[in-house]
């Protein structure tokens, strides 16, 4: 009898600790995904741009393409935003910060550091913000992370200033894209009408004949 009582107590303790971890937000991979009333997550069809002002963008070199039949001549699964240093980075859609991955591109890329941020919109759609400050300094990588206004588990709203951008060298940019069911998709499929018009306007400021995407 004493042995059974101990087993029951152990099971209860394990259950309470597990419940505490979930309630404490340590486990953010929620199935099913639940916004708890923050926004309608049934479909992403209202995505906005991720800059506050067109004047924050220094240049525009490549958008989304599924083949090399595009002005930049190569397959590219996102849109690159070349911000001026310290510009505001805006959330294009609401969501839950799922991961912040620190990467080293290795010797072929001079050990440049990137920080990939995934913000989940719903159970299948995520926005990815690939911060590429164009540096091989771990101090500057840490500096970019310190300029984030979020951590894993933070809920963001569309239009929030989620970060300031660190431009350590001339090619610094954010590689921005939408992943649905594990596949990079054409961002145009998710933009609001105003978001589409604003982004196309930005692109035409630099390249009057370009489109946003070349699917
Ligand atoms: Zn890119």
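^ structure tokens above, recovered residues below v
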């Amino acid at each position: 009898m004493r042995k059974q009582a101990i087993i029951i107590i152990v099971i209860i303790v394990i259950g309470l600790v597990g419940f505490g971890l979930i309630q404490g937000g340590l486990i953010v991979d929620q199935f099913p995904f639940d916004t708890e009333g923050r926004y309608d997550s049934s479909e992403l069809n209202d995505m906005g741009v991720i800059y506050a002002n067109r004047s924050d963008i220094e240049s525009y070199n490549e958008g989304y393409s599924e083949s090399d039949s595009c002005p930049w001549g190569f397959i590219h699964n996102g849109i690159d935003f070349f911000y001026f240093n310290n510009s505001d980075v805006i959330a294009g859609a609401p969501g839950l910060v799922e991961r912040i991955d620190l990467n080293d591109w290795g010797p072929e890329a001079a050990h440049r550091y990137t920080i990939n941020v995934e913000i989940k919109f719903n159970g299948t759609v995520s926005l990815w913000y690939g911060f590429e400050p164009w540096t091989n300094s771990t101090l500057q990588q840490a500096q970019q992370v310190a300029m984030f206004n979020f951590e894993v588990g933070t809920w963001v709203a569309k239009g929030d200033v989620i970060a300031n951008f660190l431009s350590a060298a001339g090619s610094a940019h954010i590689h921005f894209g939408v992943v649905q069911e594990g596949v990079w998709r054409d961002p145009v499929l998710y933009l609001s009408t105003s978001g589409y018009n604003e982004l196309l306007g930005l692109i035409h400021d630099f390249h009057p004949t370009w489109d946003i995407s070349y699917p």
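The two ends are 68 Å apart (CA to CA).
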